[in-house]
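Sample pair:
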Amino acid sequence: MENIGFTSDGCLISKEYIKELKQNGNGDLTALVNQNYTNSNSLVFILENLGYIPASFDSRWIIDLLSYKNENVRFWAVKTIGKLETDEYLDRLYKIASEDESTKVRREAVSAVGRMREKGNIPFLKKTLLDSDPKIVCQAIRGLLIFKGDEVVDSALKELVDHENEMVRSVILKEYFPKTKIDKKTIHHTEIHQFLKNVIVNGDVRDVLKLIPEESVHLTFTSPPYYNARDYSIYPSYEAYMKFLEEVFYETYRVTKEGRFLIVNTSPIIVPRISRSHSSKRYPIPFDLHYYLVKMGWEFIDDIVWEKPEYSVKNRIGGFQQHRKPLAYKPNSVTEYLMVYRKQTDKLIDWNIHQYNDEIVNASKVADGYESTNVWKICPKSDKIHSAIFPVDLCRRVVEYYSYKGDLVFDPFGGSGTLGRTAKSLGRHFFLTEKETKYFEYMKTFQSKDNLFDNDVTKFLTLEQFKNSIL
């Protein structure tokens, strides 16, 4: 909110000036409004800066603004009426809430009625639950929840559990049908099972995950094997591939702590054509996978685009550059997706943060220079052993932005172990699984190449050894 505005004749008008006029009485303030009646910006500025309104306030001039042509003026007029400690204008608010052409104004009218906290408004708020606009319905729910425990109110709200809109359903489920789960094996939100700390298991992730208790992992960051694009990722069909990922991320959901994050790095993939008389096939992996993740309970939060330099990707535009014929355009794919999901919970992010003490919170704060957009420009990395290695900078950002020091970071497709080494360097613990023995053995070589695995020794275990390590 600005502290300075302008009148219709170009003169400055300040918040302090409006306060002064209000103290002098309504006459001066009414005169100011009349002078600027054709200037909607001035009217909004005046209404925004009225502040506290005493009971003796003469509000008749505000009533005239309830039918003003500009929706922002009407919005602030309704908001101002809501500050008045009177039910004198209830009928006007009812009418606006039902008939105004602006959702913004209607919602504010319902909010004003709800803030009165008067039982006499329950019938109106109940009627508003039938509105076709879910934003209006949610505002009515908010007003009715003040009277939660009232038999009539509770009955009306519970009927919305099957409402068409997902936001309405989620509020009702949280308020009246909360999920209660008692699991004696579940540890405190910030704690980690000792047998998972800095461990790499050589085995099928699906077999490993079945051995892990619920709510054990704080953050999962992974890049699933690309469908039939590498020798280590051959599947009989795309359906079989998606089924495999569904199984992995379903179990990942189970072992993830409440309200914590899963970040999946994927991109559409091309399966080469059999011959020049056949077409290649392009599969939209991130978009197809999204359906399964949301269905199993992951809540979609963000899409981050990983942008790579054009020289680092396979050239698909060469043919088009020669002939420039429409329909044959195939751009070079310089992006991959980091799809960000959160395990479904009724609790806000603040609840997760408040599980940590001040020392951990302060030590984990992200330093200056963080990326402020959802486009991350990072060069890819590969080597002779693994052709699709996570860049360290990519891992560093994810670990710093989505976990706290001491947390457990999980990668079900460990590859060369970059996530584990990066997590450890940032004061986190890691747990990796890797089915391919050659990559598992490759990760062992980093013990001698750097010191990241030396302190708090990393355990390299077979599936059987991992089973025996569980207490």
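The chain has two domains: 4-176, 194-469.
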